[in-house]
Design goal:
The chain is 47% helix and 12% strand. The chain has helices at 35-62, 64-69, 73-81, 125-133, 163-178, 182-190, 195-205, 216-230, 243-253, 282-288, 290-300, 307-318, 322-331, 339-343, 363-375, 390-393, 395-407, 423-435, 438-448; strands at 83-87, 96-103, 110-114, 137-141, 152-156, 207-211, 235-240, 258-264, 353-358, 380-384.
């Protein structure tokens, strides 16, 4: 018996005659390369870490305490050896702190050293110590915006530009204070959006940080207050670098308070080319790395300074908005200052002067020194073997010039201001003079100063 089975129809591909039937190959699974994944993951992680570290460093540098603790031991020691004085740069602004370093006996000749832009009292620490060892009181101050003095202040109010993020923060604060629908309610009541009121309210509450900028007028106020507070008048003034243009106004206004003036490589423009700190990227390299700032100092200021000394100046110039303050003061310098006109004026002409000049920098700088000597014919002109910043490497030589010049004058007579008698005590004295009761006078006087009854006789 035959069994009939049905075969499934298998579709046959049509193959043209003379051609080979294609052979089917099993596709191999493609293996993914892990390199791109790990590369981009590592890159993203590195950028995130760099951003976190940068923000951490920025926040720590903005905190004064963290900034101070990060300073080298030499700078911290210098700060510990000095003190701060409250001064008022402008009448309509809050007082600021000025750092002062001093050495030597109080009852002696007073020498006050004013640094140029980009420097500080730290540069003259060895000079004032050497003056102190010679029996002369040496005082070096940090001008506001430099060194350890205040470099910025918080300003409340005003219409200063604060940027997009600052505007958003102000609007958010206004919403928190007035409510979301405050402006809408005002518009319904008055028919107009209270734009002026919003701007006025924002400006009145705005707090911003402003760099302290010094010109000759501001420096005169600061210098006068420091001298009065420390009781230094009359003083022997030492002006280094661009300090001549900064302190010239105070000298002209107070010639009776100046015994002598010593100019140390003084010029209107500072030796340190501060204009390069305006340029982005370049300023970050110069202030962010020691080798860049060292190269800049060696090029224009001093080739003999140790790396640790240069590093200290870099840190002080960079920290706490120092760059902004110094550049602001640079713009306010009187670049048309005429040293001959100033030195031969009636107020300054009678003040003894000494010019201490470098003979090692360049022929151009030596010619500049000769021009200064010609402009000040009565001044004593001497040369030193250092650079335009001689206070670091040639401190002993500079100290000898200053000490010899100061010692050539008769001893200064201090003007002692008497302490005013309190109003209560003055009333008692007036009553005693009228009554002739002397016992009552002594008793009241002793009680007023806390001396007690047993002090009187």
């Amino acid at each position: 018996m035959a069994i009939i089975t049905e075969e499934e129809d298998v579709p046959k591909s049509l193959v043209p005659p003379g051609s080979k039937e294609p052979t089917m190959k099993n596709p191999k699974p493609q293996s993914q390369n892990p390199f791109p994944f790990w590369f981009y993951s590592t890159l993203i992680f590195s950028l995130a870490t760099l951003l976190f570290v940068s923000l951490s460093l920025y926040s720590s540098q903005s905190d004064p305490r963290s900034w101070f603790l990060s300073l080298p031991p030499a700078l911290r020691q210098h700060y510990s050896d000095g003190r701060t004085i409250k001064v008022q740069v402008n009448p309509d602004e809050s007082p600021i702190e000025v750092f002062v370093a001093e050495s030597g006996p109080i009852q002696s000749e007073n020498v006050i050293i004013i640094h140029g832009l980009g420097l500080s009292s730290y540069a003259f620490r060895e000079t004032i110590q050497s003056l102190g060892s010679k029996g002369i009181r040496g005082v070096a101050i940090d001008l506001p915006g430099n060194g350890f003095s205040d470099k910025s202040m918080v300003v409340v109010g005003g219409d200063r530009e604060i940027g997009f993020l600052g505007r958003v923060k102000e609007v958010y604060g206004l919403i928190q204070e007035k409510g979301v629908f405050w402006a809408f309610d005002q518009m319904v009541e008055t028919g107009d959006l209270p734009y002026e009121e919003i701007i006025k309210l924002q400006n009145s509450k705005r707090r911003s940080v402003k760099a302290i900028e010094l010109g000759s007028e501001e420096t005169a106020r600061v210098l006068g207050q420091v001298i009065d507070t420390l009781g230094l008048s009359p003083v022997h003034l030492v002006l280094h670098d661009s300090a001549l243009g900064l302190a010239s106004n105070w000298v002209s206004e107070n010639p009776q308070s100046v015994r002598s003036i010593t100019l140390v490589d003084s010029s209107i423009n500072p030796a340190l080319p501060l204009w390069v700190l305006h340029i982005p990227i370049i300023r970050e390299v110069l202030l962010g790395f020691s080798f860049g700032f060292k190269k800049l100092v060696s090029l224009r200021c001093s080739k003999e300074m140790a790396l640790s000394q240069v590093e200290a100046h870099r840190i002080l110039l960079k920290g706490r908005n120092g760059r902004e303050a110094v550049l602001g003061s640079l713009k306010k310098l009187n670049h048309s200052f005429d040293i001959a006109q100033w030195g031969n004026s009636d107020a300054v002409n009678r003040i003894p002067m000494q010019v201490v000049w470098s003979k090692q920098v360049s022929d151009v700088w030596i010619e500049e020194g000769q021009r200064v000597a010609k402009a000040l014919p009565k001044a004593k002109f001497v040369t030193h073997s250092g650079s335009r910043w001689p206070q670091e490497s040639k401190s002993g030589e500079l100290t000898d010039y200053i000490a010899d010049f100061v010692s050539a004058f008769p001893r200064s007579i201090r003007r002692v201001s008497e302490e005013p008698i309190p109003e209560k005590v003055q009333k008692i004295l007036d009553e005693a003079n009228a009554d002739g009761n002397h016992d009552h006078v002594h008793s009241g006087y002793s009680d007023a100063y806390g001396l007690g009854e047993g002090w009187t006789t």
